[in-house]
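In keeping with the milestone schedule agreed at the kick-off meeting, the structural modelling team has produced records for the first pair of proteins. Each record is given below as a sequence line and a structure-token line. The laboratory manager (R.T.) confirmed that both were archived under the project's standard naming scheme.
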Amino acid sequence: MEYLITIVIANVLIGGMIGMTGIAGFLLPMLYSGFLGMPSVQGLALSFFAFLISGVLGAYNYYRAKHLDLKLAVWISAGSFVGAIGGVRLNLLIEEDMVKKILYLVVLLSGISILLRKESEDTKKNDRPGQKIPPLFWLAFGAVTGLICALSGAGGPILVMPLLVVLKVPVRTAVGIALFDSVFIAIPSSIGYGMGCSPKELLLLLPLSLISHGIGVWAGSRNAALIRPDLLKKGVAVFSVLIALYKLIAG
């Protein structure tokens, strides 16, 4: 029972953080594989099914709030879909211990990037992101980030959102695009990893995970304006760096 309660509480909290800031999804595979001891394939399957829900609900709310550049999101997502297929295939060829180390390393670097990144006033005021960058760049951008996220279990926003901000996309628009993009990373990833799981175990845990995660994401994305996203991001980043360092050092 404690096992199931942990999954529910973690999904609500992590889903809420994803809805508010677009980040924190990477904590799910760490929870499943690092702390609950699940095989990495099962942990990744549950995580990416959850990312599918968070992407749909979060992107919808950001679109309603006019914080989603749909044209740019479609170009990035097209590349991410292809990249994610390659990431899943590559993951299944690598030993499980190595997959976990890749996940922790991605988490560590992502946390550090959030802590070091500063939002300039120009970035905040820019309302036409990516207008001078050709679509082929965004396709390649999506393919590379999609491969890394699908391979490591990082989800999508934790990597895509900071990079979009670096490329002069406004913060809230970057969150909306990253959530939309995470749907197209999650589709091939959840199917690919799900095929490697025991159907009985997946069917037992999947509904519980999806419902609790969906509740958290919906609440977070609907109330994103009520909390300073920079403070939440910094808190998640510090926690991520500490956990990733511990897992990398402890093995």
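The second protein of the pair:
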Amino acid sequence: MKIKALFSGLVLLLTVSAPAMADWQQAAGEVEQSIEQMLEKVSPYKGEVVADMEPLYLELAQVTEDTVDYPYIAKVVMGKYYRRASAQDKLDFEKVFRRTLIKTYAKTLVSFNIKAYELVKPRSISPKPNKQKVTVKVLSTAGKAYSIVNYMVKTDGQWKLVNIVLDGFNLRVTFKNQFSNIAQNTKGNVSAAIAQWSEKMSKK
């Protein structure tokens, strides 16, 4: 009886996990495709961050246009100040944040000088099929190993990136703290905070 129950449970597990794994594979496929496209754009730089990175920024902007949920991430980064922001403030910050994330992408990828990467299958199944975590192990030409965790959400049939954790460094949380600090310095003036953010980014 116990064996029969165990067998039935195993069949049920396989029935449930197959579609769930399919969701992860779809999200992972999106991540892998984006990585391949970005590495192709980064390869001419041969691991060196140069003075004029603008051509790379423009190319990465095109690659990530449909795969990164910039509006959502920008909203989360603004935190409580999003509710206080005007419609123009929200548009302005989304624009400058998009630029921020693309520059971060570019300089990180160039600095890593990736030799190889591997997508790691999850140990457990996500309880929410439309939300998947795709971990990528990266090896640089210098022999250093890195871990990149991509948080993906499926909206209207499209998988999009909503956060990245790089070797324990949570980009979304880090940017949110930075915006909060700037907004506090401007005494809650969102427009001024966005202007300061933009000015700082232009110097990096």
